[in-house]
Amino acid sequence: MNIGDVAERSGLPAKTIRYYEDIGLVRPVRGANGYRHFDQTELHKLVFVGRARSLGFAIEDCRLLLSLYEDRSRESAEVKAIAETHLDSIDRKIAELERLRVCLRDLVANCNGDTRPDCPIIDALSTTRAEPVSRAREASQAWGRANGRSHKNAIV
Amino acid sequence: MNIGDVAERSGLPAKTIRYYEDIGLVRPVRGANGYRHFDQTELHKLVFVGRARSLGFAIEDCRLLLSLYEDRSRESAEVKAIAETHLDSIDRKIAELERLRVCLRDLVANCNGDTRPDCPIIDALSTTRAEPVSRAREASQAWGRANGRSHKNAIV
DNA sequence: CCTAGTCCTTCCACCGACTGGAAGGTCAAG
DNA sequence: CTTGACCTTCCAGTCGGTGGAAGGACTAGG
């Protein structure tokens, strides 16, 4: 199969598959014309990685999971540990987002949203409060790179 | 104030403040020695942006909010609209993460996590199911850049 | 054989929002 | 005069791709 075929079968864009080869997740052989050629094994690996990514595993986790997938003598404890760590990170992210949601919902609820300039949201962002900005940074980082606005398929 | 002072007062790293100048969020004046000099107004803007970022607003939202902050004749509806859009995006992210959490928790719960190779997590990632991978891509993108592993302060 | 169209290749640049580090200038204290 | 803290600019890297240009390979039709 050429890259277009595995792209269709795996549901991954060809660009992504080339990238996965670049970082060593798959190793398609090359034909005489320079085209990549994928066998069933490579296709399975792509599907595997696609699913792991869809569950939010990082690429390096995928690499690890892939090696465990191919290791018939793996211990399920190893896999479980990766998944549990990931689950924890999801929990932390949800908790942080919940915190933001509560905060923002309050602000939005208190804002009239009319033609007058008076706005509790702006006030909250600008007013010097008892508890200053000291912890703003951590929270800001906590949100992390989650909101890639410009990204085509990102949830915004 | 030099950059170190405003860094301390705003809670933002000096590097970040330079970056904010780079992208035009603040415009400190320069002294004869080339050092940036920040007055109260610039400090307030930095604090403002720091707070907005800590609520998860994107830089471009911050830029908009900042211009509304400085516009005394703004309409609170404009601010509210930005906040509501952001709130929606938070809700969507939470929903997506909840979906992943449920899925992962089931997988983890079903895995023995012992020394045997038998692992339902690996099975789920590799087995061809009735519903194939067709939607894996969207979900993968949905997770987005949220898990910047290498990032110092990112929630992981 | 030529052409059009589709597929494939590589390479480079870009996204967000910084962060790290190198190389070097400036300033205040001792 | 030196030390050290602070400041400057610039370049590169983060994560996981995505967009596009420039050009080679292949297939079908005339």
From TrEMBL, chains A, B:
Name where it's found.
Cytoplasm
SMART domains, sorted: HTH_MERR
Q: Name one GO molecular function term.
A: copper ion binding
Q: Which UniProt keywords apply?
A: Coiled coil, Cytoplasm, DNA-binding, Transcription, Transcription regulation
Renumbered to this chain, region (Disordered) spans 135-156
GO-annotated biological processes:
positive regulation of DNA-templated transcription
Q: Which residues form a coiled coil?
A: 80-107
Q: Which Pfam families match?
A: MerR, MerR-DNA-bind
Q: Name one GO cellular component term.
A: cytoplasm
Gene3D superfamilies the UniProt entry points to? 1.10.1660.10
Domain HTH merR-type: from-to ranges? 1-68
What is this protein's name? Cu(I)-responsive transcriptional regulator
**Source organism of the structure:** Albimonas pacifica
